[in-house]
TrEMBL record:
Protein name: Glutamine--fructose-6-phosphate aminotransferase [isomerizing]
General function of this protein: Catalyzes the first step in hexosamine metabolism, converting fructose-6P into glucosamine-6P using glutamine as a nitrogen source.
Domain annotation Glutamine amidotransferase type-2: ranges: 2-219
Enzyme superclass (EC): transferase
Gene: glmS
Pfam families attached to this UniProt entry: GATase_6 (PF13522), SIS (PF01380)
Domain SIS: 288-427, 459-600
EC code: 2.6.1.16
Assembly notes: Homodimer.
Annotated organism of origin: Candidatus Kerfeldbacteria bacterium CG15_BIG_FIL_POST_REV_8_21_14_020_45_12
Catalytic activity line of the entry: D-fructose 6-phosphate + L-glutamine = D-glucosamine 6-phosphate + L-glutamate
Amino acid sequence: MCGIVGYIGKNEAKPILLDGLKRMEYRGYDSAGIAVLEGTNISTCKKEGKLSNLLSALESQEITGRVGIGHTRWATHGQPNDINAHPHSDCRDEIFIIHNGIIENFHELREKLKKHHELTTETDTEVLAHLIEDEMTEGVLLEQAVQQALSHVVGAYGIAVVSSKDPEKIVAARLGSPLVLGIIGEGEFIIASDPTAIIPYTREVVYLDEGEIVTVTPKGYDIRTLENITVTKDVTKIDWDVAQAEKQGYDHFLLKEIMEQPEVIHNGIRGRLIPEEGVAHLGGFLQKEEEWRKIDRITIVACGTASFAAKIGATMIEEYAGVPTRVEIGSEFRYKKPVLDDRTGVIVVSQSGETADTIASLREAKRHGSLTFGIVNVVGSTIAREVDSGAYIHAGPEISVASTKAFVGMVNIFALVTIALGRQREMSLVTGQRIAKELTDIPKLMDQVLALDKQIAKIAKKYYALDHAFYMGRKYNEPIAYEGALKIKEISYLHAEGYAAGEFKHGAIALIDDRFFSVFIAPQDSVYEKNLSNIQEVRARGGKVIAVTTEGNTDMENFADDVIYIPKTLEMLTPLLSVIPLQLFAYHVAKLRDCDIDQPRNLAKSVTVE
C-alpha cells in the first residue's frame, strides 16, 4: 500500500524521487521520506503527513547525488510521525531501507536484535535494516546481505535498499508486494511499486515476480531468486501515457475518472464484442474455452469495490449462462476450507492485480486444480501473471483512492464473460445479440447520466449536513447499494449502510429519523414494485428519500423527495448506469464537507497487506 521509488543514473536523484512520490502519493500519505547517496555520504529527510510537508522541509536542506530511494507511507506498525517515516537505517546510518508490506515475525526478530542493536522506531521495517547490518560483514556485497537477511523474514515485502558501504547500487526485492524496474537508458534505471512513477521517464519495464531480488548499478541490472538462481526476464512496454495519470483540468482525479467511464466501456468491448453474432471474443476466455465447457460451478473472489462488481457478475452468470456462481470475500476465503476441484472455475477480481487477500485466494484455487481467470486493470500485475487466463479492464490508471471507473470496467468484463459462457451453453443467438447490442449502447447512455452532474450537485446540498444514510436496492442493484454507501463513506466520511431493500424491515428500519436519508436504486425492472413498497415504508416513518429510477417514470416523484433519472437498458446492465449518480452524489457531498476527495483519511489505493 506504500509507495516505493528508487533512482540510479546520470541525473540528480532528488527531483526524480519527489516526482515519483507525488505520482504515487495515493498509495499512502501518512508520511514521506528520501535517502540520497553522493559518494559514500547518505543524506536523508523524512516528515509526517502528506508529501507537501517533506517538500517544505527540503527547501532548506540541500541534498545531492545520483542514487536514491523514496517512500510514501500508509502506516501499519507505529503511528504516523517523523520517527516512524521511511527510510529506516541501521545503527551506523550506513544502510537505508524502504518497505511496503508487513513482517509477520517482527516481534520475534525485534527481541533478538534489541540485545545488540539500538532500535528507535515502532515499525516492523526497522528490523530489516538491522538484519542487513548483521549480514553485511567485511567483503559481503549489499545484495548478498539483503538476500541473507530476508531468509529470516516471514511476511510480505517490497523493499529497496542503499548503503554507503556498497555505493552506486540499489538492491530491491519483492514477496507479496509489487515492484517494477524501469529501464530509462544506458546506466539509468528507476524502481517503483507502481508504474505511475515510471512512465514520465520510460515505458520499458521489467516486472519482478515473487521471491526475486534485483541489483541495479550504472552498469546494468541482475535479477536472481532468493535462492540465488539467475533469472532472465522479458522487457515489457507500458501501454498508457503520462497524460492519463494527470488531472487534465479537473479539480480532482475522482471527478475525472467518473467522467472517463464511457470511454472505459468502449475500450473494454472494442475488438471483443460482435453484436451481429451475439458473441464475446475474449482472448483470455478463448485460450481455455474447452476447459470452461467442463466447468460445473464458479467461485468469484474479490475484496472491497471489486466484490460488489463480482456480486453483479454472479447474478449475470447464473441468470444468463446457467452456471451456479457464488462470491467470496478474499480475506475470508483464504482461511476457509474451500470446496474446489478441477470442475470449479475461480474468477479473481482486482483493479491493481496486487490485492494480497485475492492473490492468496488465487494460489489456493490453483493448489486445488481449479481453472482460474483474472479480471484486472494493471498490466503485468501479479494476478495477471499467475492466472490461467484473464481479461484486462482497460480503464487506464486510476489515481483516486476511491474506485469508480475500474468498478464499471469490472462489471463490463463480467457482461462479456456472461455472453461467452452463455453462448457456450443454452443462451440463444437472439439473447446474445440483444445483450451485445445494449452493451454497445452503454457509453452514450452513460454520457446522458453524466450530464446530470449539476442537478446531482444541487441535491447534494440538501443532504450533505445529515449524519447517516441508507442505500438500498434489489437484485442487480443490491450491490450498487453497497457500492454507493461505500463511496460516500470513503470520501465524505458520512456514515452510510448498504442494504438489500427487502431486508431493511428486519431491524434496520428502527434507525430512521430526521438525521437519516435513504437512497433507493429502483429502475423499472423485475423488482420495481418491491422497491416501491420499501420506499413507502421509509416515507411512512418520516424518512427522506432519494430515488434513482428509469426515465419516464414520473410516478416516482409522488414517493421520493428527489428523483434522478437514468436511461432505460437491459436489467442486467442497469448497474453500469445507476452507479454513476451515486458516484457524483458522493463527490459533491464530499466537496461540500471540505474533505480530501482523492486521498481520504486512513485509506490507500492498493491493499497489498493482509
